[in-house]
Amino acid sequence: MLALPERRSAGSHRLLARQLALLASTAVLSLTLSNATAQENQLRGQLTESQVNDELLGGQKSDASGEPSRGGEPTPGYVPVSEGALDPDEETRDDNASLFPMEETDAFTEAPPPTPGRAARATNMRDEPEEAADAAGPEQPDLEETDDTAVGTVRQERVDALDEEANRRLDRENPRTAAIETPSFEEEENPYSPLGLRVGTFDVFTTLDQGFIWSTNSRNAPDGSEGVLSQTELRLNAVSDWTRHSAAFNAFVTYKDAVSGDDDYDELQGGVDASFRADLAHEMNAAGAFAYTVRPESASSPVDIGNVVSEPLLQEISGNLSIGKDVGKARYSLTGALDREIYSDADLSSGGTLSQKDRNFTLATVALRAGYEVSPAIVPFVEAEIGRRYYDLEVDSSGYARSADRLALRGGVELDFGEKLSGEVSAGWLRESFDDERLTPISGLLLDAALVWSPTRGTTVSLIGSTEVEGTTTASESGSVRYAASVEMLREVRANLTLGANAGFAWRDYVNSSDHELTLSAETNATWWFNRYAGINGRLRHERFDSTIAGRDYDASSIYLGLKLQR
């Protein structure tokens, strides 16, 4: 059986109770300080004792009544949990006062209420204000002003908010595929245009036109008669397919034969022409053209041979070569040209022939042009031309030396508005002085034009104007100046139907004479295509020739209908 300790006296019991209370208070204070320090170290690192004391005693600076605290400063209302924690002489303070007063915060940053352990720790530390002030350290920043000390839940973005691939709608993995044999159709601009043939780097197009002409004057001459003619025309056109340069070639042959009426009439004419343009280095370009035609001389020729069976054949050869240079907005070009006319002998109705060698000549000219680009579409220019006309015979059958020096000066404008309007027009003055002083020099107004205008889509209007000096073999006469102009309009009504109309006039003025001649003509035509290979075409034409020279007037009307084939 265990022995019980002896009962102690009342004084020793009180002493033991005080020692136990002191030990318990010391243990509670140590535990509270260790917990506070550990908690604060997790948030803001290691703290000193003065920092802890400042936090615990910060609310005792001053209360609402402004009474000074024990430390000599006014303290806010603080009520400890235990009534014995206050001195008997100290007034009771507001029970609702917090040990840790804070500014207004939101629900996520509000500090937790004080615990009884903290209240007891604050009560015991009031006895040592100086040590608590040293341990508190510097004042900590307000929780609302420091993001790192904020407490609460912060809303975060979704994990896939910035993932564009995750938010994109998936494409179908099995799209419908068109059939392999399904053809791809492309609408053609002109489904009735010829396909052509590929020859090297050229696209070649051929056309055959076969039809019949009924005319009131089959020869287009003063003594012509009504008749029906068969007409066959073959044309060939070739266009280059080059990237930098360009070239074109054209050829035609036309044959007319009388079916009824003037049985002795037949006519053959043809010609070729070619042109090219090349872009050279250093803003330079070169261009050239060549043309050759052979045809019977027209009854409206200025030279009236008289009683002949048929008009002599006229061969015309022309060629030119030009070099151009662009210097800024200035444009310069130098052009050399040759024109030659050769006449065959005329068959007389009385038998025999009449030589026409005294009419053969060659005209050589050189022209210098200077222009300025006002805009890319408008280039005004001036051009000076010098040349000489050489006759094969130094003295003709009448005893005149008809070779002459030529001088011309013109001014005009080049236009290039694309498909809307392009070409050039010019006006000036020319003069040819003969070697034979007995002949009056030929001089007059110089007018030239070559314009293509498209007022609406599918409609094209062309204007061609020229001035030509014509020679003669008549004694004491110098020759004549002929002005010619024509206007042609083409309208594509449908893809397979084209309508056209043209009108022309020519005025011949004889030098040193009051004689003159006027030619007027008008024509309408239409072409209807069955397909891109075959179609029918027709035209209605009227021509009138009036002259002050007796026995030269005539007029003629004709109708043509034919079949047109192209490839």
TrEMBL record:
Residues 42-192 are annotated as: Disordered. InterPro entries: BBP2_2 (IPR018759). Keywords: Signal. Residues 42-53 have a biased composition (Polar residues). Residues 155-175 have a biased composition (Basic and acidic residues). Residues 1-38 form the signal peptide. This is Outer membrane beta-barrel protein. It comes from Aquibium pacificus.
